[in-house]
Amino acid sequence: MRLTRGTRNAFYKYSPNSGMKVFAVADDPNYDCRVPRTCVAVVGPGENASATAIADATTVGRLVAERGWVTLTGGRAVGVMAAATRGAADAGGLTIGVLPGTDKRHAAPDVAVALATGLGEARNAVLVSAADAVIACGMSNGTASEVALALRAAKLTVLVRPDADTRAFFSAAHICDTPEQAVEWLEPLLCSG
Description:
The structure is a single chain. The chain has 6 helices and 10 strands; from the N terminus they run E-E-E-E-H-E-H-E-E-H-E-H-E-H-E-H. A hairpin with a 4-residue loop joins strand 1 (2-5) and strand 2. Mean pLDDT is 87; it is low at 1-27. With 193 residues, it is of the alpha/beta class. The protein has helices spanning 51-66, 79-90, 123-130, 141-152, 164-169, 179-191; strands at residues 2-5, 10-15, 19-25, 39-43, 70-73, 95-99, 113-116, 133-137, 156-160, 174-176.
């Protein structure tokens, strides 16, 4: 994967698997690189992610990208992390993976910026701290830590299709039945401030 500058001051990401795609157009009158972009973390299970969680994460990634927001994930090439990154990249969005290890080669193929932290699971705190909002698709031990950190930091936190136990335990989080509802709930809150 490499970034190249195009003829219209557009930056392209080239991936052998997906071809070249625009992810930022510098001559767009609405694009100002000096304005910080909204970052939304999409969290969920890795190896044990359900098909529903993967489908939801793909949709969330796409919806986040369509709004011009940056998609943050745990960066690995598995489960919800890979699905959200793929959905965002397919929609032309910027993707950042906050990796637990020190090797950027472990990033999902559609991660545009891989941050190899070397922090192990402590990278969950970095991921959540960097996000303006957190959307969880599915649940695992690692996901539970990310949701708990997000709620503790008073981040906008949404759970998509949580089971009854998860819903009860994380009662302070906003609950949605679909990825579309999750992003629609966040949009006015993120765009107002």
